[in-house]
């Protein structure tokens, strides 16, 4: 029953989006309201995600149930798309957690499920390859969804009244899908067309027109990858120390999580690319045979392709089974809490996130390709692997927050978080723009009774833009392009105390 509930909550969170990289800044309304600080302040069940040792210092047993609503805003500009607004999406992000202190014992345990983060975007954009016969653009779908949820058990043990250690063992669940034009170097086409010289389709597509080639620097397919799901593991360890009644210190480590996304399907449609090549071949034939008609040239080119083992009547759209591998990063964080007065508490978190060793690439494995033409050009039997480069950088995060008990039932909060942008200029693209850096948050809690309180927070991720490098690693369409991202996030939770 518990496993079924956990998976159900994970599925609800399938539309998660990003804040710091692809991670949430905070995991409940109380911590978000004070800037996401939660490593060195020990008053929330979401310590299971940030510093499990801290649950030792919660008063009695407690339960939190919360929901956040994330509304990202995105724009994209390149030479043929001017300040295009991404579709407005609404992403619900749930969390539920329960912590129990064992009577007459120094052990505290908890169980919970949390939205860890993710990414999602939708655009309709122009692409130079996809055009009608009159030259007008046929807009293409650019879509992404990467959702990550985790949950499980945590335990903390007080070694002394002031010092505790804790661990979390969490199941990680992910969903992923992408749809967009996908460009690769012509060298991906390894099918040999001249055994005597070893010349390949890639050589022909990349070769200069004057030597019988097409002069392409990249070949592009309309790609649609969906249905990918993965399970993995995340481990966390932490320490918590109450120096005195005013000062608290915490530290934690989160292990990397390797996820293999399975059961996916991919459609790779090279029709636009082949049509373009066919047109160039027809033009080349007419140039070398001035008396030939358009129809004669087309028939001659069709015969040439047939001689290379390509039956144009079967098209060049292929369906594949798909797997993808990604690693989510390890991190180290420290946190401080200081009670200035009975009513005012300050908090500071600092964290290092090892994106460099995690999001260096996404490994894709395609199998059971069902189009003989595509298999012929790629030089395989329908199975091949490739790496989608990401090349992210490590991120450094600082979070500042305060809580002020304005009255007996009302607590006010405010905070600020900064996380350095991990996405390099060489691999930024519109449906994966995890670039926001500055977050401003406010929040409040209202005590309805001794056992029940309602918590709310608002988080604004300030608009951030990034200009891609002049030579994008991914595709020419992204050269010098500009991606923008901002976020509005609303958080609401309810807390029950069991004394």
Short overview:
With 499 residues, the protein is mostly beta strands.
Low-confidence stretches: 1-18
Q: Helical element count? A: 7
> What's the CATH topology label?
Porin
Architecture per CATH nomenclature, i.e. the level-2 architecture = Beta Barrel
CATH superfamily: Outer membrane protein transport protein (OMPP1/FadL/TodX)
Biggest beta sheet attributes: 14 strands, antiparallel, barrel
- H and E string: HHHEEEEEEEEHEEEHHEEEEHEEEEEE
- Apparent shape: elongated
Mean pLDDT: 92
**What portion of the residues fall into strands of 2 or more residues?**
over 45%
CATH top level label: Mainly Beta
Determine the structural class based on helices, strands and strand pairing: mainly beta
Count of the separate structural domains: 1
How large is the radius of gyration?
A: 27 Å
What is the strand arrangement across the widest sheet?
1-3-4-5-6-9-10-13-14-17-18-19-20-21
N→C terminal distance: 26 Å
Strand count: 21
Determine the fraction of residues in helical runs and give it as a percent range: 10-25%
